[in-house]
Design a protein that fits this description.
alpha/beta; 5-stranded antiparallel β-sheet; 14 helices; 18 strands; 26% helix; globular; hydrolase
Length: 528
């Protein structure tokens, strides 16, 4: 049974990418009205909270992660009053709400950046960002060799000759967290939304706010000068004090792509963040030994700081796991190469995704479900070039297909696009094959992915062994991942090429048909 005294320790949290969830006004873009109309889907799914990607005013250069105003709602999505109504309606269904906060950067349309451009070199306004003169005799070279994570240089020159830093798009200038204005601003933003009833924040680029003020060159992709800097801990301790000052266990969740899990766990000490995404688990290829290693290291690192793990299979930035697990070759994930050229066996990927769902639901801690994951949706890799909108595509001159393929609007009902997403054409094209993957069709099929998620989340809530806690590994042979959880729960996933004997116990749930043996790429929950 999930831990109700510390809800975030074992919560099942559903990620809503607003533009692609549901369109309430017929303009082809998801909005708050669409979310409100589909809240019952989420309640019936059995999730504990929703995490919303940014809903703030934005020119949408980076899908809303280029924020122009942190205290309002993007007009394409609705109004601040609608957001407050959505909060009340979600809470009435016992669903908490977490929203994105983007403290590393803002939009170039943000009032502070516009003021910085107008004020000129040396001004207090420019001290809120990283403006620097260029190198070389005429300052025509960037201040250092840092590269944007979206491709190309991390610096852009303005007409007066100075350069500004942007670790992402050139329309996303980085804040200078050495400046007290930035620290005060974001503390005020936290209070603004906590006062309106949000239950927590997911912190975008949580590892990247603080930079080495020397701005040194880096070699061989070393991100030390702008990632995982010691000054971050002071910031998050101050944020934790604010969260703890509100009733109802408000939470802070970090997005940190760090190579060392023990370093990431340092942010989860009791006076800092509550939890962070486990990206080592997300990128893990389909292999029993690799999964066991990741799970073991995750639990150990989190136990050392008294924090829960947070398991995740997909999100709005990565290739959907039905596609990854169905590849004929590398089944992991890397931003360096999205492997769109590899053949994909979708039937295989779906079978493995079903088994992976039961794995995440059975592990100690919390989990995240990315919208459409519960329908078994796959990555759309054949979006026409002229329709792609991700700045990654443009900044890499098409060498990186970007993230549009996991952001295609999800299907709700009907036999043809837009599949109940709205009344008009969706902002990205949906494949005709999704007619069999609508929420309506799957709700009527007890063998569907949606039914599996509903059953899994319901049983997870009912079983005292599941949610927060510990596990003990079982040895059932090569290629078999198995563990027990007290009281009386056994999990088995067969990665091997042949069926394996099923341990004794009552079958609570299985990802596919089972008899006295467990087929390849199939998982089962047993009660002893």
């Amino acid at each position: 049974m999930t831990d109700k005294t510390g809800w975030w320790r074992s919560a099942a949290i559903y990620q809503v990418y607003i533009r692609s969830f549901a369109d309430g006004n017929g303009d082809g873009i998801g909005d708050l009205a669409g979310v409100r109309a589909r809240l019952d889907h989420l309640a019936q799914l059995g999730i504990d909270a929703i995490w919303f990607t940014p809903w703030y005013p934005s020119p949408m250069d980076d899908g809303g992660y280029d924020v122009a105003d942190f205290r309002d709602i993007e007009p394409l999505f609705g109004t601040l009053a609608e957001a407050e109504e959505l909060l009340a309606e979600a809470h009435a269904r016992n669903i908490r709400v977490i929203i994105d906060i983007v403290p590393n950067h803002c939009s170039d349309e943000h009032r502070w950046f516009q003021a910085a451009l107008a004020a000129g070199p040396g001004s207090p306004e420019r001290q809120r960002f990283w403006f620097r003169p260029g190198r070389g005799p005429d300052g025509a070279e960037p201040p250092n060799n840092w590269k944007s994570r979206f491709g190309g240089p991390a610096w852009t020159r303005v007409p007066d000759g100075e350069w500004f830093l942007h670790l992402y798009s050139s329309r996303q200038p980085d804040f200078n967290w050495e400046n007290p204005d930035i620290r005060q601003e974001f503390e005020d933003v936290l209070r603004f939304w906590f006062d309106r009833g949000v239950d927590g924040f997911r912190i975008d680029v949580a590892d990247g706010l603080v930079k080495d003020p020397r701005l040194p060159d880096v070699e061989d992709g070393d991100e030390t000068p702008f990632s995982d800097m010691e000054g971050l801990h002071e910031i998050y301790r101050s944020w934790r004090k604010i969260a703890d000052s509100y009733a109802g266990e408000r939470v802070l969740v970090g997005e940190m792509w760090l190579p060392d899990m023990s370093r990431a766990a340092r942010y989860l000490r009791r006076d800092e963040l509550h939890s962070a995404f486990n990206f080592d688990f997300l990128v893990c290829p389909w292999d029993a030994g690799r999964f066991r290693d990741v799970i073991t290291r995750t639990l150990l690192a989190h136990d050392e700081v008294g924090a829960p793990a947070a398991w995740v299979l997909s999100n709005h930035d990565v290739t959907r796991h039905v596609t990854r697990y169905g590849r004929q070759g590398d089944t992991g994930f890397s931003f360096a190469n999205r492997l769109h050229e590899l053949p994909v066996d979708r039937e295989l990927g779906t079978r493995r995704a079903r088994a992976a769902a039961l794995l995440t639901l059975a592990l100690p801690g919390g989990l995240y479900v990315y919208q459409g994951e519960e329908l078994g949706l796959w990555e759309i890799q054949d979006i026409p070039d002229e329709l792609r909108q991700d700045p990654v595509w443009a900044r890499t001159n098409g060498t990186d297909p970007g993230r549009d393929g996991c952001r295609v609007p999800i299907p709700w009902s009907g036999d043809e696009p837009p599949f109940g997403f709205g009344t008009g054409d969706a902002w990205l094209p949906q494949p005709a094959a999704w007619s069999a993957y609508t929420a309506s069709a799957e709700a009527a099929d007890p063998t569907s992915m949606l039914s599996l998620y509903r059953d899994g989340l319901r049983i997870r809530e009912e079983q005292a062994a599941l949610g927060a806690g510990t596990l003990e590994w079982l040895s059932l042979g090569d290629g078999v991942l198995a563990f027990t959880r007290d009281p009386g729960f056994t999990f088995v996933l067969n990665f091997s090429a042949s069926p394996v004997p099923l341990p004794p116990g009552e079958v609570l749930l299985a990802s596919g048909p089972v008899t006295d043996t467990l087929p390849t790429d199939t998982a089962v929950w047993l009660r002893s």
